[in-house]
Amino acid sequence: MVMKVASPEKVASITEKVWQRVYGGINNNGYYYHHHRKHRRRCSYESEDEYEDEDGTIQLMQMGAERSKNVLILMSDTGGGHRASAEAIRDAFRIEFGDEYRIYVKDVWKEYTGWPLNDMERSYKFMVKHVQLWKVAFHSTSPRWIHSSYLAAIASYYAKEVEAGLMEYKPDIIISVHPLMQHIPLSVLKWKGLQKKVIFVTVITDLNTCHPTWFHPRVNRCYCPSKEVAKRALYDGLEESQIQVFGLPIRPSFARAVLSKI
Known about the structure:
The protein is α/β, with parallel strands linked by helices. Helices cover 40% and strands 16% of the residues. The protein is globular and about 45 Å long. It starts with 7 loop residues before the first helix and ends with a helix. 36% of the residues are buried. Residues 1-6 and 25-67 have low confidence and may be disordered.
């Protein structure tokens, strides 16, 4: 069977629908977004499951895994609302697509790797209690050549473990909601020849002061919570076509409660 791979432009429609749910039905211009489902008709292309809108746009395609429609959300309990954002995205996928997608929210570092990746939660709690240490760590790792070299070394050392953690879920889409979960997974995908078969999305959960590790030029989409962060993304090497400004993720149930009062 010949594997067909969705382009980022076609796959974007999947995540855009979810983001309209997860960001409370408000688009990046601040207006209420009235969501209308388009009628979809099933298309048969060899053995893959694909759907086509009335305008002929392919919406759901198999992308890089034998099992279709798996979404792996990478997070860590290191503050900044990473878990809350991950769960908001998970809930939005379930509302928008039902059982068409299987959603996994995982801390792959904690479950599959060793020190220092599996100890980030404890290290974070220690540093926030020692503000000066946090500032030193933040600023000393900000230069690209430093954090890129550091993360590349860790990726090489834990390549097999990270690969096992990612591939256990056979992801079609990987969504990162943590600044340290771009470089290493993307490096592993590149080494395995899967970078063009697995869609990679970053959802930034820091409103203003973003560490440069949030930004990686090989992501398919980078969702920014503010225009200031979007400017940082451009400065750090992303293209305008990769960047969307949507605000911070919120639970769909909370959004519905707020919108019902408007």
